[in-house]
Automatic annotation (TrEMBL):
Protein origin, superkingdom: Eukaryota
Protein name: Uncharacterized protein
Length: 327
């Protein structure tokens, strides 16, 4: 039964990981469509997304009526970071392609690694491999701009998304701590509430004219609604995956987002993907697999070491008592 249960749990985690990956790819696709309509309103997209999170998870948190284990001002700082990364990522679609943006999002994992401060030989190999792949991804963009689409400036878009990944890395570190050590529902509720407040103030100050210029046709309303709903699915499933399986499964699941992005670009946009991109993707995938194997091995060593020290600590009182009896 344990093997069967473990098998079903693994299958469930794989499916959950693909739900996370697919929902993120759909968010990217819808954002790309909104950009194609000439709409540049990242704060507005973020505001409605956070608002839905607050409306869904806020009442659940209020019904519990318990003291927050994490001070509210820490959530506020985390929201500033998350909202900044989210807005930059949306902005990048004005200049670059869905495939490149999703591939460069892998930089988030690199930055998270640096924040974790866990260094070994294999991890240095992983970092070098991933950086080589990401560099190839940028090079593929430099020679693949569509001559018929003068609005695209891939290198600028790549620079923006790389900047966004630094925000996401800090946000992911805080998210992993909240969902593993504290409360997953509380994290999502506070993220939505403070995110709505922060982006609401920002769009009032910086994006009012852009909102007025948007042609709120049924198509545009449908795109914004679709983005908000899929964002809710992503924000709901991602913390659940992190809590159940940890960062490794989450990182590898996000890697498959690039596959979905390639499928969307080829079959919907009818655009050819530079062959260098496939090479870049393969290299990044190899780097992440190296990291995942090494992370699992490191966790096993740490767990074994912890168990050994605990066992020794527990035996000490017995040994002292035995010694006292001999005396």
């Amino acid at each position: 039964m344990e093997i069967k249960g473990g098998t079903w749990r693994t299958l469930f985690l794989l499916l959950l990981g693909q739900l996370v990956s697919f929902s993120l790819a759909i968010c990217s696709f819808i954002t790309s469509l909104i950009s194609d309509f000439g709409v540049d309103a990242p704060l507005t997209q973020s505001f409605f997304s956070y608002m839905l999170l607050a409306l869904v998870y806020g009442p659940i948190l209020l019904r519990r009526m318990k003291t927050l284990p994490i001070p509210w001002y820490r959530y506020l700082v985390l929201v500033f970071i998350d909202a900044g990364g989210n807005c930059l990522a949306i902005k990048a679609y004005q200049y670059s392609y869905i495939t490149s943006i999703n591939l460069l999002n892998s930089c988030t994992i690199l930055t998270s690694f640096a924040l974790g401060a866990r260094y070994s030989f294999l991890q240095f190999v992983w970092v070098g491999t991933c950086m080589a792949g990401l560099t190839l991804g940028i090079l593929s963009d430099s020679g693949s701009a569509d001559v018929q689409d003068f609005s695209k400036r891939p290198l600028l878009g790549d620079t923006i998304i790389v900047a966004a990944t630094f925000f996401f890395a800090f946000s992911n570190v805080g998210e992993e701590y909240c969902v593993k050590k504290k409360d997953r529902v509380e994290f999502i509720a506070m993220l939505g509430t403070f995110g709505m407040l922060v982006t609401g103030v920002q769009l009032t100050l910086f994006e009012r004219k852009k909102i007025e210029a948007i042609n709120w046709s049924p198509t545009m309303i449908g795109l914004f609604t679709g983005y908000v709903v899929v964002f809710l699915v992503f924000r709901t499933s991602a913390p659940f995956l992190i809590k159940m399986s940890g960062a490794t499964m989450f990182n590898l699941s996000l890697l498959t987002t690039d596959v979905w992005a390639v499928i969307i670009r080829i079959f919907f946009y009818h655009q050819q993907v530079n062959w260098i991109y496939y090479l870049a993707f393969a290299i990044v995938a190899i780097g992440l697999i190296i990291y995942s194997v090494n992370e699992d091995s490191s966790d096993d060593v740490i767990a074994a070491s912890t168990t050994e020290h605990t066992t020794q600590y527990e035996q000490l009182p017995g040994e002292l008592i035995a010694g006292a009896n001999l005396d």
